[in-house]
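Fold it.
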Amino acid sequence: MIPPAYVANPLADAVIHTESGVAEHIDVATYSRTRGFVQGRLTRGETPGFDAALRLLNGDTAGGGRLSAVEAMPLWQTGLILLPQECAEPFASPDITVARDTYLRHGFIVLPQLVTPDATRILTDHYRTSVPAGKLTHGDRQANRHRAHNDPAGRVALNALRETVERIVGNPIKNSYAYASLYCGGTDLPRHRDRPQCRYTLSLQIDHQPLPPDGRSPWPVQLHLDPDAAPVECFQTIGGGILFHGSDILHGRPTLPPDQHSWVLLLHYVDIAFDGPLD
């Protein structure tokens, strides 16, 4: 099905929207070396190659007839298929150690090497240009931060790390949503529990400025595991993360010093059987 010159893009996320059980459009977010993060929509009856995109997303890379150039073009434009030289390396670090027992015992785990240095640089550069370009919204009900809900970079990271999270929690899971949080100096994060859509919360640290020599953000996530004890403080390396039960565990952060900023991607997942909204 995929033309011989192309390959399926491993750094792609797609949400299929259905009406009366029939797929009507596909929202796509992808990353490639040549175009960076892009997003687009494929629509039944309007987009050539729509059915081929569905087959591709269902894991069938050989089914159906060979795509014509007209059918292949929308899939390439959205980044679902790429030329081999356009493909980037996987975001998930190959060196990550899956310590499932630690997670099951405590309800959280610190993951110092979650994504590769290349992926960290790609994400940091993307958000560093997004803020002055006005692509993020400033402020919300919780904190003084620049934020983006399900932006292309967040969606790609969400999908790229799902298999890692699934291996740790030990259950089949699915993507819920991504929330880029670029915290400004002087803010804090009041302790709270996340919504049901955040059964598994992965906090990915992508930048902190100024960064200490040890490469670790000095602004901890505080997990309130015992009401009669001090919170557990979890510090993240750049490119590292913390995975915890976001909808169960009270968590927050202390006040960030006014001369610092801290950039975090919040990636949320739910069990595969969850039937609520994923936003």
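The radius of gyration is 20 Å.
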